[in-house]
Amino acid sequence: MHIFGKILGTFFGFLFGGPFGAAFGLFIGHQFDKARRLRQAGFNTGFGSGPSQAQRQEEFFKAAFAVMGHVAKAKGQVTREEIQLASTMMDRMNLHGEQRKSAQNAFREGKESDFPLETVLERVRISAGGRFDLMQFFLELQISAAFADGDIHPSERSVLHKIAQGLNFSADQLEQRLRMQEAAFRFQQGGFGGQTGGGRSHSSGGQWQQASTADQLSDAYKLIGVDSNADAKTVKRAYRKLMNEHHPDKLMAKGLPPEMMNVAKEKSQEIQNAYDLIKKAKGF
Predict the structure, then answer these.
(1) What are phi and psi of 177, to 5 degrees?
(2) What is the mean pLDDT of the chain?
(3) J domain location, by residue (predicted)?
C-alpha cells in the first residue's frame, strides 16, 4: 500500500497550515502516491505535466496485451492454444519486430501472479482520456481474445467483470457485449466476417455465396443489439450508433494506437455485414 506521500503531505501541511494545510497536504500526497504506484506498474506518468499522445497510445497498447495475458491466466495454466490466440491477435494488428516483442513482453507480464490489474485499468482510463469509445474498444478487445476459442470459461468471465468494473462499465453492459461477441463469433463462422472464423466466401459477382440461414440472421440481430422483430427505424438507429462508436478514423482521432487500426476496421466491417444481412431479410 502506498501511503508514504499521504503521511508526509499531511504532516508538513499541518505544520505550516494547520487543519486546512493538512487536508491540502493529504491531497498532494495522494497524488504523489498514485503516480508512484503507476510508475512501479511499468507505465509512464505525467505527474506535473500530462503525457503526450504517443505516450498515451503506447500505454494503451501495452495495457491491452498485458490484460489479455491476465485473462488468459484466469483458468490457471496458460495453454499453447491461448498463446496462439495472442499471436493471432498480433497478426491481425500486423505486429512485427520491436512492436511484436513489446506485445509479447506485455502479455507475459499480465500472466504474473502479482499483476496489478486495478492499477493498469486506472492507467487505461487516463490514457483513454475517459473517452467511452476507447474504453469500450479496450473491453471488447479483451472479450474478443477470450472468446476466440468459441467459449468463455467461468474464471475468464469473472476477470472480464473486474475489467469492466475498472473501466466504469456495469455488469449488465458487460453481459450485453458478451452476448454480442458470442453472436459475432457464430456470424463469422457462418461466413460473414472471416477474420477469425471460417473465412468469407464470395461468388465472382461479389454476392454472398453462402445462403443466409435463420440462425445467421438471428446472430446478425444480436450482433447489432436489436430484437428480431425490430422495425427498420430501430435497426438503423442501432446500426448508426454502433458504427459511430466503432468508426476506425474516429477512434484514431481520439487516440487509438495505430497498431490497432486493422482490428477497428474488422469490427466496423463485421457490423456492416450484419446490417446488410438484416436489410436484405427485411427488405429495406
Answers:
(1) -70, -30
(2) 80
(3) 219-283
